[in-house]
């Protein structure tokens, strides 16, 4: 990237791309996070509401089972009401109501109760009522198994999870069963409750489906109702095993929400597929990224077009200067604009025209005599016009209020004057430091002011002491390129002090540093002329110092990994 226009265009593109990427990325992330949190929170609230409704449904069926205790009839003696043993065994009644009538009332009290049956404890007789007049195959009814499971807590209601009511003829309906014992509370209370009979209510699992519409589930989403022993009461994905459900709840692609169902000491688990839940969000995010990509491509194309358009006339001028250098003075460049480039082209054309007139008027002998002067003039043409061109560009930047660009061009112009000024091997310490500050200003702008140059000069140092020209800038450049570029911020320090009869200049950085092997190879190449080296700048400065001041002077390098590097340069103080 030797062309200033390429650098300018690259900076232009970076200044546009970095804020675009940063702003777009953070905006999308913030928006996506908000939408995800909002959606998840809403879904959690819906699952909580559904769990509340389910718990209320269980409580409702529990209240229905308690009708065995709560129903009272006027005109019936209190003793009959209380003596459930006599009512059930002798009168075949529950609370002065025939058992069959009581069961029919229970069945038709709720649309999801498919059957109700009462087993009398004294003789095991089964009374039953159901909606569809199906025949009961009592030998298939697992009454004893359910009663055995209730034996530890006979006074409490029990719920048995989903199963098929195949004990009714021709039925394979999935139901869960709520069971409550009818306990005789009359007379003296005993340690073991006196169970008169047991009421069984078959409830269709379709009762749970009425709550699913609230969640708007997708095809891959699943809602599962489990009790405290992980028995499955319901799953919208059909017959699923406990292991399959637990495996799905651990899938990272699923959003798992849980809410407790206190009545059955269980949980309502909603497993929502993330891709389906946030499909619209992902689509919007992809659209934003596509727009960012299109804008980036447009910005790069515009930057490349701008660079080519700005650099084309300069390239033509450079090519024409090469033609003039070869001795051809018969061609002119067309002037296509009135800006700085156009005025530079006009000046070049006038210069070529004057050279041609001068050659035409002079004698061949005079041309030969002035050949040396002409060669000197040619060597000064480029710097002269380059200085003028840079100054014109800088003044135009100032006029456009581009102060930073103007300062960069000014610093670059100072550096060029300092470097192209032939015939000087030694300069004052002051001029070398001024050149270093001009160089580092451009470096700091190029890297967004991430790096800082700090100079510490001892009070007993004379700023007019001579040192080798262009000896500090290569060292500072190495510090930035090899020490600081791998980190976001850094400092390059320059200390100048007097040591006995020598002037010691130390250049250090707080960058990556070097390991011992790398440091040893660099120090070897400084003192072994035949040793291959990639550190051309260090070796060049070291050999120039030793060539001018003797082998007692030069530079030395010290470094520690992850701490930094320092380079010491020594010069003699003039007596």
TrEMBL record:
Keywords: ATP-binding, Cell membrane, Kinase, Membrane, Nucleotide-binding, Phosphoprotein, Transferase, Transmembrane, Transmembrane helix, Two-component regulatory system
Localization per record: Cell membrane
Catalytic activity: ATP + protein L-histidine = ADP + protein N-phospho-L-histidine
Topology class, membrane: Multi-pass membrane protein
Main location: membrane
Pfam families linked: HAMP (PF00672), HATPase_c (PF02518), His_kinase (PF06580)
Any one GO molecular function term: kinase activity
SMART domains according to UniProt: HAMP (SM00304), HATPase_c (SM00387)
HAMP domain location: 308-360
Domain called Histidine kinase: residue spans: 381-575
Segments traversing the membrane: 286-306
EC nos: 2.7.13.3
Protein name: histidine kinase
Species per Swiss-Prot/TrEMBL record: Paenibacillus zeirhizosphaerae
Lineage, opening ranks: Bacteria, Bacillati, Bacillota, Bacilli, Bacillales
């Amino acid at each position: 990237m030797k062309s200033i226009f390429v650098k300018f265009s690259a900076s232009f593109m970076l200044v546009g791309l970095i804020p675009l990427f940063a702003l777009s990325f953070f905006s999308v992330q913030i928006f996506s996070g908000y939408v995800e949190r909002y959606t998840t929170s809403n879904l959690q609230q819906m699952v909580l509401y559904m769990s509340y409704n389910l718990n209320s449904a269980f409580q409702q069926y529990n209240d229905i089972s308690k009708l065995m205790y709560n129903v009272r009839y006027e005109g019936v003696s209190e003793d009959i009401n209380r003596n459930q043993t006599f009512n059930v065994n002798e009168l075949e009644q529950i609370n002065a109501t025939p058992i069959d009538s009581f069961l029919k009332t229970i069945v038709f009290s709720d649309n999801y109760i498919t059957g109700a049956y009462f087993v009398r404890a004294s003789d095991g007789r089964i009374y039953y009522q159901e909606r569809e007049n199906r025949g009961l195959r009592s030998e298939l009814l697992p009454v004893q198994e359910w009663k055995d499971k209730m034996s530890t807590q006979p006074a409490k209601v029990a719920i048995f999870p989903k199963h098929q009511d195949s004990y009714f003829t021709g039925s394979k309906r999935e139901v869960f069963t709520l069971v409550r014992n009818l306990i005789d509370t009359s007379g003296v209370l005993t340690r073991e409750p006196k169970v008169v009979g047991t009421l069984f209510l078959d409830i269709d699992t379709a009762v749970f489906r009425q709550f699913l519409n609230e969640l708007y589930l997708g095809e891959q989403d699943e809602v599962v109702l489990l009790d405290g022993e992980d028995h499955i009461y319901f799953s919208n994905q059909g017959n699923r095993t406990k292991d399959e459900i637990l495996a799905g709840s651990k899938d990272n692609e699923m959003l798992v929400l849980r809410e407790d169902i206190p009545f059955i000491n269980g949980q309502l688990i909603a497993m929502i597929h993330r891709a389906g839940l946030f499909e619209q969000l992902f689509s919007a995010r992809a659209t934003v990224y596509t727009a960012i990509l299109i804008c980036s491509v447009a910005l790069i194309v515009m930057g490349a077009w701008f660079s080519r358009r700005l650099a084309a006339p300069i390239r033509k001028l450079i090519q024409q200067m090469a033609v003039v250098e070869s001795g051809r003075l018969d061609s002119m460049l067309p002037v296509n604009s009135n800006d700085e480039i156009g005025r530079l082209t006009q000046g070049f054309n006038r210069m070529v025209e004057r050279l041609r007139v001068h050659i035409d008027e002079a004698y061949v002998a005079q041309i030969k005599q002035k050949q040396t002067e002409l060669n000197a003039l040619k060597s000064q043409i480029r710097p002269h016009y380059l200085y003028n061109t840079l100054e014109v560009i800088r003044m135009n930047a100032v006029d456009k209020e581009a102060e930073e660009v103007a300062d960069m061009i000014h610093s670059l112009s100072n550096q060029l004057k300092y470097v192209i000024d032939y015939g000087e091997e030694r300069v004052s310490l002051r001029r070398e430091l001024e050149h270093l500050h001009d160089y580092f200003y451009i470096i700091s702008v190029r890297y967004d002011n991430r790096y800082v140059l700090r100079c510490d000069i001892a009070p007993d140092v004379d700023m007019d002491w001579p040192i080798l020209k262009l000896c500090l800038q290569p060292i500072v450049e190495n510090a930035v390129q090899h020490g600081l570029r791998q980190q976001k911020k850094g400092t390059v320090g320059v200390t100048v002090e007097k040591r006995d009869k020598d002037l010691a200049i130390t250049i250090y950085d707080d960058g990556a540093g070097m390991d011992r092997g790398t440091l040893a190879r660099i120090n070897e190449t400084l003192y072994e002329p035949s040793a291959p080296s990639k550190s051309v700048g260090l070796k060049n400065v070291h050999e120039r110092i030793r060539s001018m001041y003797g082998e007692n002077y030069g530079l030395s390098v010290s470094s520690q990994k992850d701490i930094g590097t320092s380079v010491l340069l020594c010069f003699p103080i003039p007596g």
